[in-house]
Amino acid sequence: MSSKPLDKMNGRTIRINRVPATITAILLTIVLVYFLNYHKDERPAIYGMLRSDNKVNLRKMLIAAIQAAQRGGLEVLDVAHSRQLKERSKGKTAEGVNDPFTDADGRSHCVMKQGLQRIFPRVHIFSEEDKEQCKDAHSFDLDPTVLHETAIVPDVAVTAQDVTIWIDPLDATKEFTEELYEYVTTMVCVAVAGRPVIGVIHNPFSGQTAWAWVGHSMSEYLDELHKQPRLQSDQPVITVSRSHAAAVKDVARNVFGEQVSLLTAAGAGYKVLQVVANNATAYLHSSIIKKWDICAGEAILRALGGAMTTLDDEPINYGPNDSPVNTGGLLASLEQHEEYMERISKYRSAHNGKLR
C-alpha cells in the first residue's frame, strides 16, 4: 500500500496512508451534494453560506403549508377532546363581540409558526397569535405524501423577500368554545409580491383539507366541493358572519334587495368554502377583518377563477409591509363578481357613498 512522507522530526520520517484520507474526502463530498440537493430549505443556515441567490421553493412551501395546517389541527383536536380550553378574552371585536383565546389557539400557533420558520427562516410569517410566547420548540420535516398522486406541483423558485406567509391557527375560536366545530379551521396562506398564490383551509374535526396553488393544482377535496350542484335560484345567496349578522344583513338587503337569501355562518375559511361548494353565491363582510382570516380563502378562490376584493373593488394586498387589517370590507365570489360590485357601487352613489 503506497504512502507519502510528509515531514521529518528528530531524524524520523512521518508518513500518512492516503487511502483512508481519500475515502473520507469522497464520503464528505457525497454527503454535501445530497444535503444541497434535498435539504436546502430544511438547513438554510448552512445552505445560505454556500448559495447567495436567496430563493425559496413554492412546491416545498405548499407541502409545508399543508402540514402546518394539519399539525395545528391536531393541537386543536387535542384541546377539544380534553376540554381544558383555558379560555380568556382578548377584548372586544369592532362589532363589540367577545374575542376569546384558548389553549388551542396558542398550541396551534406554536406548532404552525415554529415549524414553518425552521424551514423558511428568510420568509416573513405573520400569525394571529404572534403575541403568544412558545415555551417548547416545534418542528416537522417535509412530507410530500400530503399531496395526492395526480397533483401537478412543479418546482418554482421565488425570491424569499417577496414571500409572506399568513397563519390563522384557529379560525372561529368563539364557535370552538361553543363546540360548533363545523365552522372551525386552521389556515395557511402564501403570498408572493402581495398576491395570494397558495391557500390551505383545514377542518380538524372532519379531517378535510382544501388547498390550492393558483395556476397549478388543488386538492381532490376542493375539486369535489366545487363540483357540487349549483344553486337553482334567481336571487343571490349571500353568506354573512353570525357574530355581527344584523349589520351585514342590512347591507346585503340594501344592495341585493329584500328577497336576497342570507346564509349565516362563522369563520372566514368556512364561508369561503360555502361559496366554493355552491351553497352561497357570494361572501359579504362589511367591517374590518384581519388578513390571516382571508388570505387562504382568496388564494383558493383565485385558483378557481373567482375573486375577493374590498367593497371599493380594490385588491387586498398581503405584503409584509402592509397593515394586517383590511378596513375596506370584502366581497368574495366565484362568478358575477363584477355584477355584484356594480350593484354595490350604484347603491353607494345613490346614498352618499354609504352602504347602510
Describe the structure in your own words:
The chain is α+β, with helices and mostly antiparallel strands and 356 residues long. It has 2 domains: 55-222, Fructose-1,6-Bisphosphatase, Chain A, domain 1 (2-Layer Sandwich), CATH 3.30.540; 227-350, D-Maltodextrin-Binding Protein, domain 2. It contains 10 helices and 19 strands. The chain has helices at 18-38, 44-50, 58-82, 103-119, 173-177, 220-226, 245-256, 268-276, 291-303, 337-350, and strands at 3-9, 12-17, 55-57, 88-92, 98-101, 124-127, 157-159, 163-171, 185-192, 195-202, 209-213, 217-218, 237-241, 261-265, 282-285, 289-290, 307-309, 325-326, 330-333. The strands form 6 sheets. The protein has a 6-stranded mixed beta sheet with strand order 6-8-9-10-11-12, with helices on both faces. Helix 3 packs antiparallel against helix 4 (103-119) and helix 8 (268-276) packs parallel to helix 9.
